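2024-03-11 09:14:02 DEBUG pipeline.ingest accepted 1 chain
2024-03-11 09:14:02 DEBUG pipeline.ingest length=582
2024-03-11 09:14:03 DEBUG pipeline.predict start
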Amino acid sequence: MIFMNGLEIFFKTLEKEKTEFLFSPPNSFGRDAEELFDRKFSKSKYLERIVSGSEQGASHMADGYARVTGNPGVVVCDSDTSGTNTITGLQTANMDSASLVVFVCHFTEDKNLTNIFEHIDHVGISRSCTKHNFLVKEISELSKTIREALHLSVTGRPGTVLVDISKEVLDANHKFEFLPVDKVSGYKVPIFATKREIKKAANLIMKSKRPIVFGGGGIVISEATKTLQKFANRLKIPVTLTLMGLGGYPPDDPMRVSWIGMHGSYFANMAVHNSDLVICIGARFDDRSTGGVFDKFAPDANVIHIDIDPSTINKNIKVDCPVVGDAKSVISQLDDAIPLNFQPDKEDRDNWFERIKKWEETHPTVATQNQKAIKTSYTIDLLSKITKGKAVVVTDVGQHQMWVAQYYQFQNPRNQITSGGLGTMGFGFPAAIGAKLGRPNDTVLAVCGDGSFQMNMQEFSTAVANNLDLKIVLINNGHHGMVRQWQTLFFNSNYSCSKFDLNPSYVKIAQSYGAKAFTIDSPKDLESSLKEGFSTKGVVLIEVIVDHTEMVYPMLTPGGTMDSMLFSPDDPVPDGPVPDMS
């Protein structure tokens, strides 16, 4: 029987769980932990320590790693403000169902939880932004709790877990036993739907004339792409995707109908609005994908909502057929429930696809470029062609995020990484570092706006120190572009705090960290310079000076339904209350 102290049990359990990376800021382990780690675990096959510039950066790195691999991203930090600085990362990951586990280790402890320097109630603070959290007070519970935390983070609807470990536990000695966890008391994951749910959903599908799949991130998480392809092609059901679902269904599949939402394609939004059956798979029906007028969503449609998390069903949209279960498993169940000899009415389907095609022809999604200022939309279109749609693309938040969704043709799941639920500026660059660590043999590209990039650009130190082959395309328009767009459309072009009076030299900043960097400011140099950047090894910043007046279209009208969209600044904006820009 082997006895270890709490610190060694902590690291040993993570090693046994094959945790690849420990993301943490400098000096986050404490002296004893640093000494133990260096002595016993620094040469481990696992537990490679990635030192970030900040705790928020560490949490976004772990998040990016988790999203591209499907494995939990692990952050280790101290119990002071180091822990509180992970809260934005926890909420970002939790809202997008990413597997992030933060371990907060106490190096001082007050049994009354008062009057100790830098003591913070991390369990209380994190309760609203985690799937679950733990406070470990007994050494006998430490290894089990670590394993349960990792298990909870990746099963069911993935999410975030915080584990707060007391000083007494880290110092105490106990026998080490490693027993893999495959279940947690009181926690049950519904994989398969009930026969009643499947029967009702199958009947609705067979009766529908204008069905459409409304696919979200759950398709990606459950690895349901091929299963959905088979199902949709068999029954001739068009498939559209939310922002988080991009990559979950091939863009060249005949059933694919672009993407939906605030800046989604006109024909996809129209298809959802005019359908008679919406089959929602792994999506939340949030306001950015539905327009926010929930009682007028797809007014002629029955709604089937398939989700592994029952709390998301009937939350925003009233559902006719709730189905609780894993997306891939439920799609297979539906495929089996519909008789092999069933064929949808050919005339109905032909008419339905013809209507969708006409909507596409009315307002196609096409990127154009003149000889004046560089267009961001055209830049993204070029990036898609240069990388053949096969890169892992990690974005920040804003106009560039929407243009990536519109113009980058994602060929594979887990390749589109963005902060969709929280909209966290500063997410892109550190998340791209985590993505590259998780997928070292794939091309990883961070697309960032100049506003977002300034929030975490200190992570150049991490990218360069780890010799990553990482490309950053910095879209520099000198503004908070999305804020400016809303001020143009809804505030009579009264611009407040959206223009940067002082923008630094991003090229010099990158070079000061040891990265390669250059600027593109001419349309004629755009394609050749982008290709040059991608052919250069190492951390490369490609700054693209773009037209700050370009706006993202189409755009759902605030307070409108999915068939109400703007296509240019000349389109009349509906009367009503001033929209919320958040």
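2024-03-11 09:14:41 DEBUG pipeline.report The CA atoms of residues 388 and 409 lie 8 Å apart.
2024-03-11 09:14:41 DEBUG pipeline.predict end
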